[in-house]
Amino acid sequence: MKKKLLVLIISLFSFLMFSQESEKGSLNIKIDQVCSDQYPNMTAFVSVRNSNDEIVTGLAPGLFMTRIDSEELNGKQNVYPFSMKTEPVDYSILISNNGIMEGEPLDFQKTAVIQFIDYMQKGETLSLYTIGDDAVPIFENCQKEEIDTSLINAIEVSDVQPRIYDSLLNIVRKLETKSTRRKIVIIISDGRDQNSRFSKDQLDAVLNEKSIPVYSVGIKVISSAGLSALNQISELTSGSYFYSKNLQAIPDNVKAIRDIINKCYVINYKVKNVKPDNNYHLLEVSVIERDSEGKGQKTFLAVKLPVPRWLQITIIVVVAVLIIVLIILLILSKIKKRHAMGITKRRCPVCGNRMKDSWDYCPFCKYLPDIKKKKNKSKKE
Predict the structure, then answer these.
(1) Structure letter (DSSP) for residue 306
(2) Strand runs (DSSP E) across 190-323, as ranges?
(3) What would the pLDDT profile of 176-197 be if each residue is shown by its tens digit?
(4) What is the pLDDT of residues 240-257, one digit of tens each?
(5) Phi, psi (5° rounding) for residue 10?
(6) What is the largest CA-CA distance in the chain?
(7) E strands of 252-319, at which residues?
C-alpha cells in the first residue's frame, strides 16, 4: 500500500512538473537588422515581445544565446538595451496621398507623422515621401528642429497612380548612399500598387539583399486586397506589420513602431568561427527565461574586406613614418657629404653660393661671371 502511494505521489509530482514546462510562454524574437560591413565585427538589433505582443525590456545579457549556421558562437558578444546607448536613426516615412485617401485617411496620416516628429530625439533624421511614380520627397534628412510641419499639412491628394514598389525601391537606393547604419523605413498605405515598373518579385529580390527593415501600417479604405503585400514586405525585411482597424489607429500604430525601435536590444559581435567569405550565413538569437523562451533568425553577409580597416590605418601610418624618416636621412646625408668636402654655411658675399672654408676666393665669381652678373642684376631689381 505504501509503495502504491509513493508511486502515486511521484507520478503526480512528475505530472505537475511536466504541465508547468508545457505552459512555458513563448517569446517573439525578431532580428530586424544586422550590420556586417565591418565583419567579423557586426551588430544585430533585436526586439523581444511576449505572447501578448507586449515589448519585453530589462532582460539580462546572459539570457541571450547566439548560433551561426547552427553552431554556437565562437567569439565575443555584448548585449545592451538600445535606450542605454542610443545611436542616430535614419527614418524614412512613405505615406499615401492618391485620390481615395482624400479626407480623413490622409489627415490621420499627417497627424501620425507630426506626432512621430514630437517623439524624435537628438541626432535622429527623418525623410518624408509620398507614393507616386517614384517616392516624391516632401523633405529629406531633417532633424527635429529643422522640420517645417506646414509642409506636412500642405500635402494634398494626387491624381498620380500609387506605385508602391517603385517608390520603395527609390527609397532603398537613397538609403544605400547614407553612412548611418541604423536605417528604418515606415510605409503607410492600403497596399494597392498600380503599374509599377518593377514587379513584387523584383522588389523582394532587392530587399532580400539589403539589411533595411521595412515597417508597415495597413489602411483599409476600399478593400483589403493589397494589405497582404505590405505584410509580406515587412516579414521579408524582418520589420513588423500593423493593421489599422480604423483610421484613428494610424497614429498609435506608427508610435508602436517607434517603441519597438527604441526598446530593442543591441548585440555587438566579434565572430571567430565564421570566416569572411562574402557569403550569406544564418544568425540565430535565442532568449531563454525561466517562464518563457523564443528565438529569431536572419541572414547576414560575412563581408570580406579587401584590407581590414585597422590594417589600412596601420599601413598608412607606417608609410608616412618611413617617408619622413627617409627625408630626414637624405638631409643628414647631404649635410654629412658637404661637411666631408669642407663645405659649411659660408657663402660668397657677391654671388651668394656656398664656399669651402679653405677657399681664398669664390670660383663662381671668377670662372662663371654670368652667374655673378645675374646675381647682381637680381639685386639691383
Answers:
(1) S
(2) 214-219, 241-244, 265-271, 280-288, 292-301
(3) 888 888 999 999 999 888 889 9
(4) 999 999 999 999 999 999
(5) -65, -40
(6) 135
(7) 265-271, 280-288, 292-301
